[in-house]
Design a protein that fits this description.
Mean pLDDT: 89
Shape: globular
Number of helices: 15
Helix content: 10-25%
Oligomer: single chain
Strand content: 35-45%
Largest sheet: 9 strands, mixed
Low-confidence stretches: 1-52
Length: 840
């Protein structure tokens, strides 16, 4: 019996910034039959199909796509911090919602707590177990709001569940949860970008009343904040102008000294505070002689670090940490190589894991403390052919009890094992990958689906993968390559992909195909590429740069044009946008722009030879709908075979059940038609209706509007500033103006001086200009840290302009002689001042 212990995603705790994200779902939808006539006739050669597909009769039974992609009966369980309740996701009125029952109650006693019309991306408990909190957006736009439900409240007649209160009810705003401190169980810390769409200010949010208290106004391009265990904001992380990362102290809501930094080709950042409040756990690969990310303890005042641990096997980056909820001590570290390895740090955990290894079935064990006293622990046992069974372990009593199976209807005996493989890229770099081949047949001359992961700064891992198992059940081998630029394998491997989109990164994928062909595993005439997000880009790049390798492609929310992708990144990615410029390319740099145009599949669309299925969520904030529209229009206009699936109620991936099942229904039809396999012909009525509804005729697609100029500037963060670089003192200028042949001399003076206003540091920028037309003065007062304008007074002759600047508004008046005009402007984002203020 072999066990691997791995950590699961832990319940939101007080330590560190909480990231509630949606994992993009791969998938596609069906196309009307009349469009199939546009497919390449060579793909339907009947003799080839008969000769190569005889092995399909030897496959396990064809499994209903519902068991792979339908909503599980029970999933996403959590135990309340006080150990009294179990919450979990279960369909309510056809949509997965949160249910609750007493931990010792029967499942029949469970009752729903939420009645949302769209699956929830995440939920968690308040530390005192009084409120269940969840996040939700609209149609996949990722503008998440935070909602609170009192489980003890009476259900509303209209919904059948207790009322849910929107704690962040601001349209167009994305809430980020930074901390859920045990010290203040009735309050959490959140970030809101209501003042500036590019930056999140820090608020303390009262769960009972919904009242918000502004703690920190983010005017310094901070990308993330870290609290200590009492919920005090103590550190900030931001990207430097050259793409590096710096960690700064935060004192009384103000940024202090930089205590740790690394350059743009390195990774570094805080994990959480040590329980002593004086030290911080850090992950870093800083240093010329360091490749893998390691765990450190850093003095929060001095920045001095102590190395705690690196991978004992010297293979991969630190993958995660597990802390005790009771003692706040580090109890385990996690590394993800070919398989996941966990290293206990306490004897208690070693004993617990030894007990679980003995008592539970074979598989990987994920271990997540749930209650504040550490007594109850959620344990999941899973494998490559089993999505997992959930248990509750009583640490105090030394007992373990089964709660439920994730997908009891899924027959593991008919699923295919996943194996880790290695192959060599054309430049000699070793590429780690995973391979799944259909169960019951020899791994010879198979149809192959290559599935590059998204990110691209992410990676594939060993374990149950519904997408891979679905494809293997349909008769295909599945290759999941961790191409260069994938994370987790050290900074050298990551940096080997810098500005290699569509080149070396794509070569790694192509070389994986050739490896499997040379091994005799893949039939070179029956290879399709399919991926989401960056994997969608890799799909388009594969069809344009190496059309000879592939017989078809499925692009799921993938960018087709690197310039428009860069220019349409969400505003709140502004603090880290330099990473894209350095790793993907900067369209403002002439050489990079030329490279990005050349690496854009849209540029080479006429090289596509084989059918393409494009899948897109209309509300995707990361890869905009325009990316899909562009490639569909270009292929349509060139008479190339293209199909288009567009879900109006989805974003970067499909969350809705009908959308998801419709996507996969079309995927299996598409693959079967073009590379030969098998597919499920039956389809539920609601899924078939959804499939018809979200299938788009390419002839109807109109050219998208691309954000440029002012539209682009409105969501781009203002540059970071360093007030120390402002040259205080008096500066003199002489200018000569030429007006209709006449020369006019203008003498100007600017005085820059530091001052104090209401206890805050400011700069006074006083400018005056003298010419034959008279004297004009312009007096700016700007913030002493951010250089954002606060007040302005302009005088010339009898005209006076007096302005006051707020975060997103300008008020004041203009007076010209006896006439007065009020000024009241609403800004779409914060601004710098003009003239002397901008020069500063």
């Amino acid at each position: 019996m072999q066990h691997t212990i791995r950590s699961s995603e832990q319940r939101v705790r007080q330590a560190g910034a909480v990231r509630l994200a949606i994992t993009a779902l791969l998938g596609c939808l069906v196309l009307p039959s009349f469009l199939l006539a546009d497919a390449n006739p060579a793909d339907a050669d009947s003799d080839t199909e008969v000769a190569t597909l005889s092995y399909l009769d030897q496959l396990p039974p064809l499994l209903d796509r519902q068991v792979f992609f339908g909503d599980p009966e029970i999933t996403g369980s959590q135990i309340s911090p006080d150990g009294k309740y179990l919450t979990f996701n279960k369909p309510y009125e056809g949509v997965p919602n949160v249910w609750i029952k007493g931990l010792d109650e029967d499942w029949d006693a469970a009752r729903p707590l939420t009645a949302d019309k769209r699956p929830l991306p995440g939920y968690f408990w308040s530390e005192d177990s009084k409120f269940l909190l969840y996040v939700q957006d609209k149609g996949g736009n990722e503008n998440f709001h935070v909602y609170a439900v009192d489980p003890s409240a009476e259900p509303e007649e209209a919904t059948g569940v207790p009322p849910a209160r929107n704690l962040t009810p601001i349209e167009g705003v994305r809430a980020i949860i930074y901390a859920v401190p045990e010290a203040t169980p009735g309050q959490i810390l959140v970030g809101l970008n209501d003042r500036d769409p590019a930056l999140h200010d820090v608020y303390r949010l009262d769960l009972a009343t919904g009242e918000r208290e502004l703690l920190i106004e983010n005017d310094s391009n901070v990308a993330g904040w870290l609290t200590d265990l009492d919920g005090n904001v103590r550190m900030a992380v931001r990207q430097t102008s050259d793409g590096g990362t710096e960690t700064l102290k935060v004192e009384d809501g103000k940024l202090g000294d930089v205590v740790y930094s690394c350059n743009w080709q390195e990774s570094c950042g805080p994990v959480r505070f040590h329980k002593d409040g004086k030290r911080v756990y850090m992950i870093s690969n800083k240093g010329e002689d360091v490749d893998l990310s390691q765990l450190y303890l850093m003095d929060a005042e001095t920045g001095e670090t102590e190395l705690l641990e690196s991978d004992p096997e010297g293979e991969v980056d630190l993958g995660g940490t597990i802390f005790s909820d009771k003692t706040e001590e580090l109890i385990a570290t996690v590394y993800v190589g070919d398989r996941t390895r966990t290293y206990p740090k306490t004897q208690e955990l070693k004993d617990a894991l030894a007990f679980l290894e003995k008592e539970l079935p074979d598989g990987e064990i994920s271990f997540s403390p749930q209650t504040n006293d550490d007594r109850l622990v959620k344990v999941v046992v899973s494998s490559d052919v089993d999505p997992g069974t959930v248990y509750v372990y009583d640490w105090q009593e030394g007992t373990v009890e089964k709660l439920y199976e994730s997908r009891p209807e899924l027959p593991s005996e008919n699923l295919a094992p996943m194996q880790a493989i290695r192959y060599e890229a054309r430049d000699g770099l070793t590429i780690p990958a995973y391979l799944v081949t259909p169960k019951g047949v020899k791994a010879e001359n198979l149809g192959l689906v290559v599935v590059p992961h998204g990110g691209p700064w992410a990676r594939d891992t060993w374990g149950y993968n519904s997408n891979a198992q679905f494809l293997a059940n349909r008769g295909y081998a599945v290759l999941m390559p961790n191409f260069r630029s994938s994370s987790g394998f050290g900074k050298a491997f990551l940096n080997a992909g810098n500005k290699e989109w569509g080149r070396a990164m794509q070569h790694d994928i192509s070389d994986g195909v050739k490896y499997l062909v040379d091994k005799g595993i893949a039939d070179p005439d029956r290879v399709c590429i399919m991926g989401g997000s960056y994997g969608g880009y890799a799909t388009l790049a594969g069809l344009t740069f190496t059309p000879e390798l592939y017989a078809c492609g499925v692009d799921i929310v993938g960018p087709s044009n690197l310039i428009t992708l860069y220019n349409s990144l969400p505003a709140y990615w502004g603090p880290i946008v330099k990473m894209f410029a350095l790793r993907m390319g900067d369209p403002e740099v002439e050489e990079d722009r030329a490279m990005m145009i050349d690496r854009s599949p849209l540029t080479h669309v006429d090289k596509i030879e084989d059918p393409l299925l494009v899948i897109q969520g209309a509300n995707d904030p990361r890869v905009k709908k325009a990316e899909a529209d562009q490639i569909v229009i270009a292929m349509r206009d060139k008479g190339l075979p293209v199909e288009y699936i567009l879900a109006p109620d989805e974003g970067h991936g499909f969350r809705g059940r009908e959308n998801r099942l419709a996507m996969y229904a079309r995927i299996e039809q598409f693959l079967d038609h073009h590379i030969g396999g098998r597919h499920q012909e039956s389809m539920e009525e609601d899924v078939a209706a959804k499939l018809a509804d979200i299938t788009v005729d390419p002839a109807s697609v109109e050219a998208p509007k691309i954000a440029t100029g002012l539209d682009l500037a409105k969501k781009t963060p203002l540059p970071a500033v360093d007030v120390a670089n402002v040259a205080l003192g008096t500066h003199y200028y002489t200018s000569n103006l030429s007006v209709q042949g006449q020369q006019i001399a203008v003498e100007s003076t600017r005085v820059y001086k530091a001052a104090d206003k209401d206890g805050e540091s400011v700069l006074h920028l006083d400018a005056s200009a003298t010419s034959p037309m008279g004297t004009a003065t312009d007096n700016f007062v700007v913030d002493g840290e951010s250089l954002r304008p606060l007040e302005r007074l302009v005088k010339q002759g009898q005209a006076t302009v007096e302005l006051t600047y707020g975060g997103r508004e300008v008020t004041g008046q203009i007076q010209a002689g006896p006439q007065q005009m009020p000024v009241s402007l609403e800004l779409e984002a914060p601004v710098f001042g003009s003239d002397a203020a901008l020069d500063a």
